[in-house]
Design goal:
Structural class: mainly alpha
Order of helices and strands: HHHHHHHHH
Strand content: under 5%
Shape: globular
Radius of gyration: 18 Å
Number of strands: 0
Largest sheet: none
Distance between the termini: 50 Å
Number of helices: 9
Length: 256
Amino acid sequence: MSKRSRFFSSSNPFLSENAFAKSTEAPLDSFSLGSSKATHMTVSGAVNKSLLLGAILLVTGFLGAMLMNPILMWVGIIGGLVSVCITYFRPTNAPFTAPLYAAFEGLALGTISGIFADALGAGVVINSLLLTMLALFTMLILYRTGIIKPTEKFRSVVTTATGAIAMMYMVNLVMHMFGSGIPYLHEMNFIGVGISLLIIGVASLNLILDFDQFEKGERMQAPVYMEWMAALGLMVTLVWLYIEILRLVAMFSSND
């Protein structure tokens, strides 16, 4: 693995190391929403774009929650996946595909959240959002203070754990097609709660790697569109984290 590839390795469930490596090797491109004069990635630029993606997701999420249409949920899921795939193969499209991902994912999350709120009360969604933000800021503090450092060993462990979880999701999906599923996964018992907490922990640790992408991108003077790529990577992790927290909170609420 090259030095450049190591700098941009990621255990993000959707944005792999190769995607970051390819984007840093692409020619510099000055087009970027809101930063057309920039030539290289900066931390502040990536942060601003993350906030913009978050705002887009919240707007479409509110729409999805209000309409609560299952069709919109699937449009959001499929549209978000397609947006990420396009970004993976053509990183220079990130200034356009990243906002599309946020919009699509907002529809999906909004619909899912609306369904949970309708069944278990709005508190389930509110608590899940607060816990997701708490995890985000906690990981940011741990990263900035150096308590958790994204070393090669740390990166390897998180990447392996994330890959194992992704494989478990795939196996569970296939089993569901045949009317079965992985025992204890997302079940309200000691083992099920333990598995959910473990997944939430791994998703939270992925945030450390996402923060590191911001700083490494600026240090290596990555192309400006990498700001959108890094922001998208952070958004994917937050979406994953929110869904897992929502499932866990729902399990406890349904058991009351």
